[in-house]
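Chain A, query sequence.
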Amino acid sequence: MSTTILSHSREKKNGIKPAIAVSFLSNARRLQTVVRIIQENTNTNYITHSEVIEHRAEHTRRWAHFRHSLLADDIKCAIRRLKKREGGVLVATRGRSILGVAVLLFNKRQHYGVIEDIVVSERYRGCGIGHKLIAAAMHTMTDAKLENVILESGIRNESAHGFFRSHGFKTAAVMFLKRLGDSD
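Chain A, predicted structure.
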């Protein structure tokens, strides 16, 4: 792992709770763990047109059966972006456990960043992990002199929509879909 961007701990009654740290992955040693976190903690409500176009989903209600290998390839590529300062993979950890992931892409020429994926293990949702990942992503993108941040969210992922709105994101586009063979 690379430089810690954000670290926070709270004391417990019987000792100290390990800090939650957010940092970039600098190599693929924990690749399978990151892929597992994404795969196990995203249901079909998460599917956007990008998942369909990139073949991670067969359509808006079913993940592709080979999604695991595509995610692994995508994460390897995202990890390599860190060296080029074009994004990377942020992980939120407590001790050695990965609690959440944010995959970032920077377009410095057009001055925008993309949060390609942001996933928190269901077990840790509501504990502030997503807030820490968003804060670290915004901090990193501000440091990279980016002006806008884009992310997509599946139309049925309403809890995520509220989360994104609470961080200042606004609806910027609407996607339409018609399944061929549907009656008019």
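The radius of gyration is 17 Å. The longest helix spans residues 67-84.
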